[in-house]
Give the backbone structure.
Amino acid sequence: MALIVHKYGGTSVGTTERIQLVADRIVETKKQGHQIVVVVSAMSGETNRLLSLAKKITESPSPRELDVLLSTGEQVTIALLTMALEKKGCDAVSYTGGQVQIKTDSVHNKARINNIEVTRVQKELQEGKVVVVAGFQGVDENGNITTLGRGGSDTTAVAMATALNANECRIYTDVDGVYTADPSVVENAQRLSCLTYEEMLEMASLGSKVLQTRAVEFARKYNINLRVLSSFKEGSGTLITNEEENMEAALISGIAHNSDEAKLTVIGVPDKPGIASLILSPIAEANIEVDMIVQNVGLNNSTDFTFTVHRNDYEKAMSILKETAKIIDAADVMGDNKIVKISVVGVGMRSHAGVARTIFKALADEKINIQMISTSEIKVSVVVDEKHLESGVRILHMAFGLGKE
Amino acid sequence: MALIVHKYGGTSVGTTERIQLVADRIVETKKQGHQIVVVVSAMSGETNRLLSLAKKITESPSPRELDVLLSTGEQVTIALLTMALEKKGCDAVSYTGGQVQIKTDSVHNKARINNIEVTRVQKELQEGKVVVVAGFQGVDENGNITTLGRGGSDTTAVAMATALNANECRIYTDVDGVYTADPSVVENAQRLSCLTYEEMLEMASLGSKVLQTRAVEFARKYNINLRVLSSFKEGSGTLITNEEENMEAALISGIAHNSDEAKLTVIGVPDKPGIASLILSPIAEANIEVDMIVQNVGLNNSTDFTFTVHRNDYEKAMSILKETAKIIDAADVMGDNKIVKISVVGVGMRSHAGVARTIFKALADEKINIQMISTSEIKVSVVVDEKHLESGVRILHMAFGLGKE
């Protein structure tokens, strides 16, 4: 008997019919003798419906009240799914984030899980019940409702798996696994049967949209086997695990891309110690996450400093940056939100120097100009004009021989 | 400075526009220097939308999960109303039933409030905030979400007023007060400026639909001034208070009616001690509330036993009663859900014997047959065929001279 955490996203529970299909799948797994905890998102469309209600009242709702509002979405789903399970004769019980005691910090809309109290959940499991938990939400130490931000249900699932010491955490979604590239861009992209946490982290943060970064980080930290599967069709999906168990690691696993970013550049920054911190601190204080950071070697005691943020944060970051520019006496501030980041990911590249060369040559052959470059141990990312998204991804997918024959 | 509890029902918060109007009214009251706690219901239509989702999954959802589902309705409203208040520059904070710690028993769908922990709410009020509380809901001692049943938000409001020792509890609704009869039935019905708890209790339980019985009971027990007002137009509404403060108590305050009941009769019951308990215990165990009970004097050691229940419980009560009839060896069971109960209410009748006579004569003159009669200190109720609803109420309203000139 294994303890398995299932997670179903908004599309998988988007209608009462689909909720019943999800219930079927859970009953099936239960019959195999497993203990099951199910984490669910709000029904697709529900979060937007709630947001539009808030928007009719105010353009800038307070983060606390937004969390009170949005957390109702998952609460509806846990009740409906539990009803569906009970209807099928499967003993089940629902828990909100507050009821489980998913304790988070107090950063509304983007809270982080501190710890989970699983005593009650374990008791329910021992009694043979399926426990249905609301994803995306928690409570802070004062009992205020918090949400984990977009994609937070994945994090809830992995955190529950960790707290319960589960054997596997299955993320059911509308795709049947992780691909070598976005199949809507690259026709012959292949499903990967296995991937390391590190690779998935690079893929996820780079916009594969299959799994939330934080969830993968969590899984890696606590060594939780994570499997991405389709809610709608059968298949073994993609297993995300540690390197030791992923013996056949390829040189390159896939080509990811991300069109959600915008870049900002401070021009003519005095080239002296501490300047990067002066520029980025106000951005961090505004809770804006920075992805790539590039600073060129300075000439004449002056340098350019470029970084990328989520497109939603572009305007806010720009206005903060203009203030900062005055303070640090920079020449100018520039920005561009029509960019795309394309990344080549693979644990195999650690021991192979030729990857960057292959990338640059392939892009040059297509006359695609590279605006920024950033590398890590297992990935090389380039920022290009967003018009090159499709051709860039395709040419790199081909250059590394990732396509189906 | 007074502490005032406001309560707004589903119609009053039915759209985001109306929520903003409610916010205006609260800001207005706040400007008068009062501390305010606001209790709100789900937006009108929301509870039915949630119920229909549940119904698509199962005809008989478990009461626990139904509460998890339905309680999201008020949670949405508290968030939206708090946003609207904040938008108008009014410091406010929302609380779910669980967050306030409105502690109830564990009878899902029909829970009763045991106690309320107001420390946090008091602290927020002292800080100058308007506290917006979700009506209709609470938590049991194990943290399970409970709901108080239909109209439960009134009870939440009065319970909050009691726990906070508030000066007044204002129930804003879609009518501007309590009338001498339903204005849609009796054209010249008049708004009452004042009413005793006892009268309101008889009016409410008899279907005036303005206030929930339990809320009035609560207010009477703790001597809370209760005022019914319109959310949409100005006016002082109807004050419900104790008899001493209501000096002008009329002989008869009003004519109430209730079409929500059904009657059941057990025929040929052995006339011996304990038989009423044998009949009603299984009904009570099924959580069905019984209203009127009539038993005639027995002939030949046999009697008929009649009682009324809510129409929604009619089928269930009937099937229980058929089982009971077998056990107690009754001759037959009969039922009728096409009835209406009409009641004449007034504290003044305590000292006046002629009221019943006036009622019976007025109905007889209209050839309306009386099926059941039940009396209390301050009311006389009759059950008649539902086709006599309008004529019955009108003729009694006229017989006691309650109409406007």
Notes: Chain A touches chain B at residues 16-17, 19-20, 50, 53-54, 56-58, 61-62, 64-66, 68-69, 71-72, 75-76, 78-80, 82-84, 86-87, 93-94, 96, 98-99, 143-145 (CB under 8 Å). Chain A is about 35% helix and 25% strand. The longest strand of chain A covers residues 261-270. The CA atoms of residues 75 and 134 of chain A lie 6 Å apart.
